[in-house]
């Protein structure tokens, strides 16, 4: 299905279901948000990456306006919906200050692998235990999706954007598990290095080996 969306490029990746708070201050985006409020419509956030507007992004709905400033600036709460691909990009939408584009919705294949999901959950627990970080989301619900943990994996923007473009939950799961398997040994070695550095210069109570 194709449609025309107002576009708000940002150098972030927004995943479906994600809640995002935005402070709107540029005239073009104040106009965009006001148009969406007046029309009860959505807008799109394509990822601005490698010095250009990426072809993929996420449709965004406005949940509420948290604050209006005398200057016309706004604090808004939003939430990601589905993913789209831009077929035609307009630097300025007809008669508007902001960008727009013809987009098509990207179908998402719900083909998750329950075994891989459990492995991801365990690897996440290992990661944050190794880092000494307490994360509430480690008590994930049984129906969690890859998008729910994607921002908590230490991925860079390019890696998150690759994940956004993937149309299959099973493939996203494999990508996430592969990343966790790669990063965990590095984190573990870093923690061991920290301990060795701490010991340097201190009296050590060493047990001689038996030989």
Automatic annotation (TrEMBL):
One Pfam family it belongs to: LON_substr_bdg
Protein name: LON peptidase substrate-binding domain-containing protein
Domain Lon N-terminal: 5-182
The organism's taxonomic lineage, starting at the top: Bacteria, Pseudomonadati, Bacteroidota, Cytophagia, Cytophagales
InterPro entries from the UniProt entry: Lon_prtase_N, Lon_prtase_N_sf, PUA-like_sf
Species of origin: Pontibacter aquaedesilientis
Gene3D superfamilies noted in UniProt: LON domain-like
């Amino acid at each position: 299905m194709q449609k025309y969306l107002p576009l708000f490029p940002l150098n972030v990746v927004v995943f479906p279901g994600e809640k995002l708070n935005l402070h709107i201050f540029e005239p073009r985006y104040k106009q965009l948000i006001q148009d969406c409020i007046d029309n009860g419509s959505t807008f799109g956030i394509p990822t601005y990456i490698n010095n250009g507007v990426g072809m993929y992004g996420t449709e965004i709905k406005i949940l509420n306006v948290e604050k209006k400033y005398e200057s016309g600036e706004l604090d808004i709460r939003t939430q990601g919906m589905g993913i789209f691909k831009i077929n035609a990009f307009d630097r300025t939408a007809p008669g508007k200050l902001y960008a727009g584009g013809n987009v098509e919705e990207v179908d998402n294949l719900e083909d998750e692998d329950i075994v891989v999901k459990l492995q991801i959950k365990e690897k996440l627990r290992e990661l944050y235990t190794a880092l000494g970080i307490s994360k509430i989301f480690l008590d994930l619900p049984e129906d969690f999706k890859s998008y729910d943990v994607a921002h908590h994996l230490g991925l860079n923007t390019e890696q998150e954007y690759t994940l956004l473009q993937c149309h299959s939950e099973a493939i996203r799961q494999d990508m996430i598990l592969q990343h966790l398997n790669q990063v965990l040994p590095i984190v573990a070695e870093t923690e061991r290095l920290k301990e060795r550095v701490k010991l340097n210069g201190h009296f050590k109570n060493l047990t001689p080996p038996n030989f």
